[in-house]
Write a structure and sequence with these properties.
By secondary structure, the chain is of the alpha+beta class. It is 19% helix and 30% strand.
């Protein structure tokens, strides 16, 4: 039977901030910029911890892995949950667009807002050139929002990193448990403390 293997935790690094005074946006200010047309769908940015951050271009392998991730999640989700990809979720200081997300309810339940942290059971990012950014800055944001689980589909080392047990702190928010599953192993999807299914890592890799 496949199993998840614990390894040393990757280093947690804070994203560098310019050494000059800069203006940080609230989520509401970001939403107002979208409503007023200052930001449009043609602007490749997302709000991360108050900063407008460029979204990285997607190569073919990244695009394929994102689709494989969503399909794998959809196959095992119980009633009352759905999977989405590269769509916004609203956190206290951020509005990221993760490559995969498991959301409570159904799409029509979010016609007047994006899903929030309390609506989300899992976020996942596909990583190649963004691996260190996802392991540090993105992971800290998700832990701070107390999202129960964060997966990184690592296209470089062909594995999935699994972070669970978030701890929200003023400084240094992080996940308490870190595991890695190799290509021939499986990762378990848990919702509300119960395992609802397992996904073969090889099925997520293009």
């Amino acid at each position: 039977m496949s199993s998840e293997t614990s390894i040393s935790r990757p280093p947690a690094e804070r994203a560098s901030v310019p050494p000059v005074r800069i203006w940080r946006l609230s989520v509401e200010q970001y939403h107002e910029m979208i409503r007023s047309g200052i930001l449009t769908d043609d602007d490749p940015v997302e709000l991360l911890d108050g900063y407008l951050v460029p979204k990285m271009p997607k190569n073919p392998a990244h695009r394929a892995a994102t689709r494989l991730l969503r399909e794998a999640l959809e196959r095992i989700l119980p009633e009352g949950w759905y999977a989405d990809s590269q769509e916004p979720i609203t956190l206290p200081t951020s509005e990221p667009e993760p490559d995969g997300v498991v959301v409570r309810g159904e799409t029509r339940g979010y016609l007047d807002r994006h899903p929030g942290a309390g609506d989300v059971a899992l976020v996942a990012d596909v990583a190649d050139t963004t691996l260190e950014h996802d392991r540090s800055f993105k992971k800290r944001l998700y832990a701070q929002a107390e999202i129960p689980a964060y997966w990184i589909v690592d296209l470089i080392d062909r594995r999935v990193e699994v972070f669970t047990d978030p701890s929200a702190r003023t400084e240094g928010s992080d996940y308490g448990t870190y595991r890695v599953a190799g290509r021939d192993e499986h990762v378990a999807l848990c919702i509300d403390g119960r395992e609802v299914g397992r996904i073969a890592v090889r099925s997520l890799l293009p």
